[in-house]
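Entry 14. Ran structure prediction on the chain below.
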Amino acid sequence: MKDILTADFMTEMIRTTGNMYRQGWDERNSGNISLLLDETEVKDYVNLKAVLRSLPTGFKTPELDGKYFLVTGTGKYFKNVEYAPEVNLGLVRLTDGGGTAELLWGLTDGGGLTSEFPAHMMSHDVRLRIDPMHRVVMHCHPANLLAMTFVHSLDEREFTRTLWQMCTECIMIFPDGVNVLPWMLCGTNAIGEATAEKMKTARLVVWALHGIYGAGRDLDETFGLIETAEKGAEIYLKIAHLPRLNHITDDMLHQIERRYGVKAREGYLAQAR
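Output, structure tokens:
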């Protein structure tokens, strides 16, 4: 067997968790990531027949049965992943229609999967139906997006348009917009189901007064989605109380659409002239 710590997917997971912590998105033990992997990616690094522990997931996602995920553990600090990945991460295979996660590597201190594991898997299920190349679900607490939910309307169109108007790149990076959930109790199947429903139309779902969920094809893309939305929120908070002399107009946003081949979410911009 090859050393799993040398695997590309492990290197990227360690780098990403470290970067998220340094951005201030994942204080203490907050936040979680799950990375979908193919069997061909993991078979040289773990014994697929040697199940270390079987962990109940508390839900069923038959479409994910047999799939492999590298996930963060419950109560784990992102800042510690680079120093002890085998303690803070786990590689699991879903069985029993998604009702059981077989631990194949990691969580060596006896820890469990992130409390948001059901929410992650429900979102993976939805996003894979939309994009077969989908691989990542990421949850964190970016301060500016979180602050924005206290002072801005939670209407999804208005929230999205504000972010698009803050930074030219926003509409290029998330033309599908940002969906928003009102405050719900975290760590429950109910918020997982609600998030998955929102994932049908956007790869970013804000949990009001809490944080954000992002989905993408790889760790870089998903990190970049959240990073760009967070920059938009930061600019908004810097200028929201000031008179605005200049604006990114809908006409400008249409110009970006045409120049870069993106398509804004239907009905979110005024008709192009």
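The chain has two domains: 1-115, 139-265. Will compare against last week's run tomorrow.
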